[in-house]
Amino acid sequence: MTRPDPRKTAALSAALSGAVDLGALKARADAARQAAAMPAAPAGGPAGPGGPDNGSAPWIVDVTEASFQAVVEQSLQVPVVVLLGASYSPESQQLAASLTRLAGSSGGSWILARVDLEQAPRIGQAFGVQSVPTTVAVAAGQPIDAFAGPIADAELTQWIARLLDALRDRLPGIRAGEARAGVPVEEEVVEDPRIVAAEEAFERGDYAAAQGYYSQILASEPGNELAKEGLAQAKFAERAEAVDPTVIDKADGAPEDIDAQLAAADAQVALQQVDEAFKRLVDVVRRVYGDDRDRVRQHLVGLFELFPADDPRVAAARRNLASALY
Fold first, then answer.
1. Same domain (yes/no): 214, 161
2. Structural domain of residue 235, as residue ranges?
3. Which end of the chain has less Cβ packing within 10 Å, N or C?
4. 175 and 194 share a domain?
């Protein structure tokens, strides 16, 4: 598959201005995006590379120079896939058959516009077609992607899927078409208001309040991972806010000062010196015993909780901690 570089795409847009009033399209874009339903596709001209009349699939159209702008206008609602082929080209016939089959089951989430360049050469000139078949995706009146030649059905399906994924939130007709085609709609994720309250407190720097919210959740739901992670982050943020980075030098000069070692580790994590922070506390665990050892161990485990469980730095530090303890 070949894709146009930005310069070629810009040139293509300029060329299209002779066949399509892109300025008028842009002027109507804001109003058109308010409509969620896709308008009916215009009647096509004589059958082109795709074959005969399309019956009950109005989103498959055979385009003439006279109807081309009306079809492109619909790219304000859904992507328009323009197949530029010729009746004498077996590759065009092959690609047209594949695209027609896919479009027929799309529910109108995208439009297939088939162009027979023998009948509509000016459209081919506007797109700068150098070989047939050439396929161009148009959205909001602008060409956004293209490939030349036929491609395998699996690759074609993936290309269309990527196109829809990229444009679903920008073109309102895609979801409506997918609903008609029976495409499952992703369930909306409902946010836990307790988590939202905690996150809002964290964002405004009220770490104590955030800890309170997270602790309340864990009191009734000890296994709530979001609350566990949030509590660890809030506790660390509160400590880190009060830490003076010079404590690192102080701790280096006073290895027996447990408070200084814990504060220095926090400062190092805040400075992205994660490995150094972990090593510092593992070394302290090796030197101390009793309550001091347990205090340092708990602090180190709390720092682990700030990172994903599969973080290699955490995995290595856990192994070193186990060795220091046992």
1. no
2. 189-241
3. C
4. no
Kindly state the average pLDDT of the residues 268-292. 94
Q: How far apart are the C-alpha atoms of 67 and 61, rounded to whole Å? A: 10
Which two tokens mark 267? 């400062």
Residue type, 160: I
Residue 40 in this model has a pLDDT that exceeds 80: no
Q: Are residues 162 and 200 in the same domain?
A: no
Quick one: tokens of 262? 């814990």
Quick check: helix, strand or coil at residue 90?
helix
Q: Which are the contacts of 255, defined by CB distance < 8 A and separation ≥ 6?
A: 261, 284, 287
pLDDT above 80 for 13: no
* Residue where the block lists tokens 């399509």: 20
Number of domains in the chain: 3
Q: State residue 242's pLDDT score.
A: 82
Q: How far apart are CA 58 and CA 32, in angstroms?
A: 19
Highest mean pLDDT among 4-8, 186-190, 297-301: 297-301
**CATH code of 35's domain:** 3.40.30.10
Candidate from 25-39, 66-80, 107-121, 223-237 with smallest mean pLDDT: 25-39
Query: What does each C-alpha distance from 37 to 5, 61, 109, 173, 305 come to in angstroms?
Result: 33, 18, 10, 6, 47
In this structure, what token pair is assigned to residue 86? Answer: 């010729």
Cβ atoms within 10 Å, residue 204 = 10
Number of neighbouring beta carbons within 10 Å of residue 173:
26
In a domain, 1, yes or no: no
